[in-house]
From TrEMBL:
This is Chromate efflux transporter. It is a multi-pass membrane protein. The keyword Transmembrane applies. InterPro entries: Chr_Tranpt_l_chain (IPR014047), Chromate_transpt (IPR003370). It comes from Ideonella oryzae. Belongs to the chromate ion transporter (CHR) (TC 2.A.51) family. Keywords: Cell membrane, Membrane, Transmembrane, Transmembrane helix.
């Protein structure tokens, strides 16, 4: 007669906690491999940290993600900073968030240099012509991927649709949309709590993964607990660093100097825009192209194409905007155009990402204290759903500029449309990765321009 195996003997144990050195190696690797925009980067971190390494549980991962989705700035980079901070204090957050950005900055500076020096060469222009419609398909794919993870029921679908109509048809500012979605989530969590519970639909997957280093019921580490003294230390440190850097630019360039205006504009972009790269790019386009004329609309779309081919957060396209603006303004004279671009890219990157670290180090201890409390998580879930609608609006924005680059009266770009459809088919039907799609579209565009 057989005896049933002991359940305790079969129960898996949590993996050993990683050292700071092991975490450094992981975040450095992620910085070079995190392609695919925020959706792809979040999916990659989920696969690595939740499913494979089990450094953090599904529920804790989604709880952090929902907070980062609410913040202005790049949610994937902020999520990496949050997890790095939760595991290894402030140094862990700085390492995770910094290495998420640094490889992309170096690669994007090199690509921007090539673009400004040789971008008008027919072969290069043709490649960019093909990449642009592929980028539009990638944005649509991102909306689908984020939506599939977020929109678990008709309430959340309705919020996404309402957000799209609000920004597309009514032109409402995104902060207002976020606020209204949060209100809906707050009352929805009271009236229909099951519809606004974080992480719905993931229970079976969580059960098969086993316990994590930071599991659902793991107590909040001492460094992650909220305290007012720590709150004010973070405010003083980040605020002082920002004031010191901006003051140095005012002293060196004057308030009206290009670098100073870039620092001020991208500080506002980082603080006043929500929903990550797909929501902030229209604001950046309006300011950088329409108001300051640092670059043209065509150059802005080219920048997004370059951004999609590099690792790191898609909002790194702002580094390209800075590089093109610094080069075009000849900040250091006509003999030093590349170095003007490098300086402007560095300034823009610093002032864009400093608030991201500030929001995580300041707010994450409070968010950790709300873990599992529906009155706090329901509004975050609703806001995440609203962000999906804003991403769809951005897809429409880019599709118009790619398919009608000279306006409605300027004719329809049939070749661009066909390349975009081919890219969408590759992404949705055949599950091809972002980089092969971008490279293939670039080859098609180059061939069309050279043979056409």
């Amino acid at each position: 007669m057989s005896t049933a195996p002991s359940s305790s003997a079969e129960a898996p144990s949590a993996p050993p906690a990683p050292t700071l050195g092991q975490a450094f190696v992981y975040w450095l690797r992620l910085g070079f491999l995190s392609f695919g925009g925020p959706a792809g980067q979040i999916a990659l971190m989920h696969e690595d940290l939740v499913e494979r390494r089990r450094w953090i549980s599904e529920q804790r991962f989604l709880h952090a993600l929902n907070y980062c989705m609410v913040l202005p700035g790049p949610e994937a980079q902020q999520l990496a900073t949050y997890i790095g901070w939760l595991m290894h204090r402030g140094w862990g957050g700085l390492i995770a968030g910094g290495l998420f950005v640094l490889p992309s900055l170096l690669i994007l500076i090199a690509l921007s240099w090539v673009y400004m020096a040789w971008g008008q060469v027919p072969a290069v222009a043709g490649v960019l012509y093909g990449i642009k419609p592929a980028v539009t398909a990638i944005v649509v794919s991102a909306a689908v991927r984020i939506g599939s993870r977020t929109l678990k029921n008709r309430w959340l679908w309705g919020l996404a649709a309402a957000a799209f109509l609000a920004i597309f048809a009514l032109g409402l500012p995104f902060p207002l949309i976020v606020g209204l979605a949060g209100v809906v989530g707050y009352f929805g969590g009271r009236l229909a709590p099951a519809q606004f519970t974080v992480g719905g639909g993931h229970g079976a997957q969580r059960a098969s993964q086993g316990p994590a280093v930071i599991d659902d019921d793991t107590p909040t580490p001492a460094h992650a607990r909220f305290s007012w003294p720590r709150f004010w230390r973070v405010v003083a440190a980040c605020g002082g660093l920002w004031a010191l850097a901006l003051g140095a630019l005012v002293w060196a360039c004057g308030w009206d100097g290009v670098l100073t205006q870039m620092a001020w504009f991208f500080t506002k972009a980082a603080l006043l825009t929500f929903g990550g790269a797909y929501a902030v790019l229209p604001y950046v386009y309006q300011g950088a192209a329409d108001h300051f004329h640092w670059l043209t609309p065509g150059q802005m779309i080219d920048g997004l194409a370059l951004g999609e081919t590099t690792p790191g957060p898609l909002i790194m396209v702002v580094s390209y905007v800075g590089f093109v603006g610094g080069w075009g303004q000849a900040l250091f004279g006509p003999q030093a155009l590349p170095w003007a671009g490098v300086a402007a890219a560095a300034v823009v990157t610093f002032f864009t990402f400093l608030p991201s670290f500030f929001f995580i180090f300041l707010g994450a201890p409070f968010i950790e204290s709300t873990h599992g409390k529906l009155q706090f998580t329901a509004p975050l879930t609703a806001i995440t759903a609203a962000v999906v609608g804003v991403i769809v609006n951005l897809a429409v924005f880019f599709a118009y500029h790619v398919l009608w680059p000279r306006g409605w009266a300027g004719g329809f770009e049939w070749v661009a449309a066909l390349i975009g459809l081919a890219a969408a088919l590759a992404l949705f039907r055949f599950k091809v990765g972002v980089i092969p799609v971008v490279l293939g579209a670039g080859l098609l565009g180059g061939a069309w321009r050279l043979l056409g």
